[in-house]
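Hi everyone, sorry if this is the wrong subforum. Our group has a chain we'd like a structural model of before ordering constructs, and none of us has done structure prediction before. Sequence below.
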Amino acid sequence: MTAENGGDLRGRRSLFPSVSVNTLKIAGAILITLYFFGAAVIQNGILHVQNYTPEQLNEMLGSDAGAMLWAGIASIAEIIGMAAISIYAYLLAQGVEHTSDMKKYALSVLVCALISEVPYDLAVYGKIWYWESQNTVWTVFIALITLWIIKSVEGRRGGYVLCAVAALGGCLWAELLRCKYGWGFVLIAVVLYLLRKRRTIALIAGLGVSLVYITAAMGFILISMCDGERRTGESSFGKYGYYAYYPLLLILLAVSVWMMQRGAV
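Answer:
Right subforum, don't worry. Here is the predicted structure as tokens:
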């Protein structure tokens, strides 16, 4: 299959059992669920951290052992959940490389980002609109557009310069819009895509970039085991179910947090 020279990110050389792309998607879904359990259910629903200033929050945690325990659980859940960052960056690089319809791919991600924004703000910040942070699918969308540009200029004269400009533009775009895990996610996806023909180098470089989020590097354990295979016969329902999962999760969390804040549960 692939080695450092020739082949791509779909191939693997590993002493560990292989996992499919579908398994990576499931792992990513589990990880983001864990992350938002900490960020939404615990921080927003149980601890109501948005109601405190940093000083008040520290004082509250210092005087309430139960709250401190919940805060610790939330931190662990978010730390582990951040492994999804590198997994989704890898899946995006794979998707851009192998999709036959970039416009349809981009439209699907854009729709998911639009639908997810209000539920994200409600679940994590308890507000219908919160302009200080945009949901992570916007980051994925920006990274996708960046990779689309890179894909279109690869091999052209001055292609390396254009790729660098596209990567820089994508990182800046994500930061200006204040997208969750903005420039780091974009850069991980760009590195994995540009180095996709050199699997080992791509994984090492991607791992290095992912350290900006520290525990995002854990995702490369599963990525290194991925054989690039997809389950045959996957229905459209199953395919688009992955897109639907994120907004549905956020809607469920937003409702749960709203009920918890009002003492309904």
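For your construct planning: Residues 10 and 100 are 17 Å apart (CA to CA). The chain has eleven helices and no strands.
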